[in-house]
Specification:
This protein is mainly α and 77 residues long. It has helices spanning 4-23, 28-51, 54-62. The two termini are 37 Å apart.
């Protein structure tokens, strides 16, 4: 938790400072890069959650015997 707060503030500063640099015409590319670095983890997390197989995870977590969790029985336990 001690390291999470400074990490979150540093990550949030990508968005704030990126918007400030977008307004300065001299450093527009740097601003776009910082905003991209801000949104990259959000997009990556959303894509990973989109492709996650929740039925398989549910079967593995709730089954008494994980060997019964197969595609043939449609991940039923």
């Amino acid at each position: 938790m001690i390291i999470a707060i400074p990490l979150l503030l540093g990550w949030l500063s990508f968005l704030i400072y990126g918007i400030v640099l977008l307004r300065a015409s001299k450093h527009r590319k740097t601003g776009i890069t910082l905003i991209t670095l801000f949104f990259a983890p959000i997009v990556f997390s959303a894509l990973m959650m989109w492709y996650m197989d929740y039925d398989k995870i549910d079967c593995y977590m709730n089954a008494s015997d994980q060997s019964r969790c197969t595609l043939e029985n449609n991940w039923e336990y």
